[in-house]
Amino acid sequence: MAEAPAGEILRETRDGVGTVTIDRPARMNALAGTMRDDLAEAISALSDDDTVRVIVVRGAGRAFCAGADVDAMAELHDRGDEAAFVENLRSGMAVVRAVHAAPKPVIAAVNGPAAGAGASLAVACDVRVAAESAKIGFTFNRIGLHPDWGSTYHLPRLVGPGRAAELMYSARMISADEADRIGLVEQLVPDEDFDGVVDRLAASLAAKPPLALETLRATLNRGTERPLTEVLEAEAEAQLRLFRSPDLAEGIRAFREGRPPRFSSTAGAA
To answer: Does residue 207 lie within any of the structural domains?
Structure first.
């Protein structure tokens, strides 16, 4: 099987709006190679750009982001390469820290499926606009992994602890309509109107007083029960434990074979 081309992270600025595009449409913008590092770098660069007043994160083609590339993860697992796995974890944490540290609003333009780390990226942003055809899922445990990229921090704050638990335990993909009903997205838009709505929202925020938005964002991000940095570390520890477990190997095999996984690890294992 031919290796899928590596993706790119594209960055554009226009009229006060900085846009970051995850560009690997052939693999539904699944993250591989240096894409995590490049994504963090792009968000940080727009944060530091005084001409940018609002940041939009979006995916190329028909998806927002399918999360980690399972084939790339399988290669790491087959080699037992914990060091590279940890490096990926740290790179994902850097993305969320970059979003969290941005002094300006960050909009997730969820044009299509957002799964795993893609869903976590969406909930890390300030505002989510979803196309009607979009689907969102915290699908980590389908292959035996733990949610990361700050999703166990952000999701309960959006939809409540019980709803967040159900979504993460079940790992189901929910429709954009359900996401709208439970408060996971702020705007639900017909597909044909999606780009225009995102552009108008970004333009409206870019027209606001930058300092007012910066101070408001800082206030909104303050006063949580547990620091995001602690949650990110806890997530990373859980991910590493699961990387060592038989369940990840089984999850990857089942994904590749197109069958339901048969997980066996117990809570005391690994």
So the answer is: no
* pTM, rounded to two decimals: 0.91
Domain extent for 133:
8-191+221-257
Q: Tell how strand 106-110 and strand 54-59 pair up.
A: parallel
Residue bearing tokens 């770098």: 41
**What's the rounded Cα separation, in Å, for the pair 241 and 234?**
11
> Which ranges constitute the DSSP H helices of the chain?
35-48, 70-79, 82-101, 117-124, 151-159, 161-170, 176-181, 194-206, 210-220, 228-243, 246-257
The pLDDT tens digits for 64-102 are 999 999 999 999 999 999 999 999 999 999 999 999 999
| Residue 209 domain-assigned (yes or no) | no
State the total domains in the chain: 1
When pLDDT is averaged across residues 238-243 and rounded to a whole number, the result is 88
